[in-house]
Amino acid sequence: MECNCIRVRPAPRDGWLIEGGAREMGPYHCRDLALRVAVTEALSVRRAGKPAHVEVENRDGVMIAKRCLCASFGR
């Protein structure tokens, strides 16, 4: 089964967006808040029995962090 990516990335103007999961969300005023929402969304995907991971991009579009929740949290 393919792992579902929940990505936090900069919005075109200001703030941060979340892509993946059931919907796109944002913009959020800071990356920290967007990351918290992304982890919550990824855990929701996990509760539905699907694998999920969270990725974070910086303002240059470079992935700076990736964490698979399948490895960290039991089913």
Give a description of the structure.
This protein is α+β, with helices and mostly antiparallel strands. The chain has a domain at 8-52. It is 28% helix and 36% strand. It has two helices and five strands; from the N terminus they run βββαββα. The chain has helices at 31-47, 69-72, and strands at residues 4-10, 16-19, 25-28, 52-57, 63-68. A five-stranded mixed beta sheet has the order 3-2-1-4-5. Strand 4 (52-57) and strand 5 form a beta hairpin. The longest helix has 17 residues, at 31-47. The model has no long low-confidence stretch (mean pLDDT 90).
Fold blueprint:
Elements (H helix, E strand, L loop, with lengths): L3 E7 L5 E4 L5 E4 L2 H17 L4 E6 L5 E6 H4 L3
Parallel strand pairs: 1-4
Antiparallel strand pairs: 1-2, 2-3, 4-5
Please write the string of helix (H) and strand (E) elements: EEEHEEH
What is the typical, i.e. mean, pLDDT? 90
Secondary-structure class: alpha+beta
User: How can the largest sheet be summarized?
Assistant: 5 strands, mixed
Tell me the fraction of residues in β-strands, as a range. Answer: 35-45%
The gross shape turns out to be globular
Summarize, please.
The chain is of the alpha+beta class and 75 residues long. The protein contains 2 helices and 5 strands; from the N terminus they run βββαββα.
